[in-house]
Amino acid sequence: MTELLKLEDVRKYFGLRGAPWRQAQAVRAVDGVNLVVRKGETLGLVGESGSGKSTLARVATRLLDPTQGRVEIGGKDVTKIKGRRLRPIRRQIQMVFQDPQASLNPRQSVGTILSTPFRAQGIRPTRAQLVELLEQVGLAEQHLERYPHEFSGGQRQRIGIARALSVKPELLVCDEPVSALDVSVQAQVLNLLADLRDELGLSYVLVAHDLAVVRQVADRIAVMYLGTIVEEGPAAQVYEAPAHPYTKALLSAVPVPEPGAVRERIVLTGDVPTPIDPPSGCPFRTRCYKAEDVCATERPVLEPVHGNTERRAACYFPEPLISERTSSSV
Ligand SMILES: Nc1ncnc2c1ncn2[C@@H]1O[C@H](COP(=O)(O)OP(=O)(O)OP(=O)(O)O)[C@@H](O)[C@H]1O
Q: ATP-binding: present as a keyword of the record (predicted)?
């Protein structure tokens, strides 16, 4: 299948400017990520706050330059591309931001907001094109002249999605697209994203800290911890039988949908280490219930788990791939 996005050993360190003693304090927000998103799939990127999801999303869409590594979009190496030469890239990959309130200019009408990506491509959109965009996200022509404050949170996110769709991208990177919304509205926006995927053949990277949200829509899951991907695989398999101890701990806090089913609860002790000075070896080892000496000396890389090439985990002691979940009698 066509690879729409490919990241190879991507790193993003903040604070590398200035005197050498300052550089020693660099924040390793993304620290060696390899990831592929194929046409037609929805990849859920999950992890706790501060794990580097937003930074990775911004590097992948080339809103940020990587410190190191390679970014391929639509089979083309775009790592070093800058300025106007990024235009054709923007037609392939667009971003939807977390907070529609902050990402929409309050002084611009919806019509102006939706026109901006066209103009960045040197195109003057027709009114019919703008109306079509609004209709795609469940809004209507009469909304074109209105301003962001006249809309609800859910409607504003629809405008953010319409803006991202304007240049007909193949891949949308959605950074926590529903976390700023009321729970009742979250499902509507997620349904809209699913409908758009079916109608337009879109692919998504869906960034979320809420595993229940990702479960609804993702085909594949990648789990981030301290700037690295610690596990990836088909969503159903990862949810059913997490291989990495961190994924297992994260999921143990998520209610199981089937009535009567229970999951073993794992409470992680200790704080997330600082990305300025991550632990030696495995970044998760300081909080891991399975850590052994080897985990402190060598960093594990993503490898097939127990021979299953669909499932990869960066762990020397992955969990078995069969579910350990127990069902109590209903
Ligand atoms: N511009 C920046 N300068 C310095 N450090 C930054 C910058 N942006 C992010 N960071 C740091 O990089 C790390 C990863 O942040 P990032 O926002 O990517 O994580 P996240 O998983 O998206 O978390 P959240 O869900 O809270 O946004 C954090 O330690 C954060 O403080």
A: yes
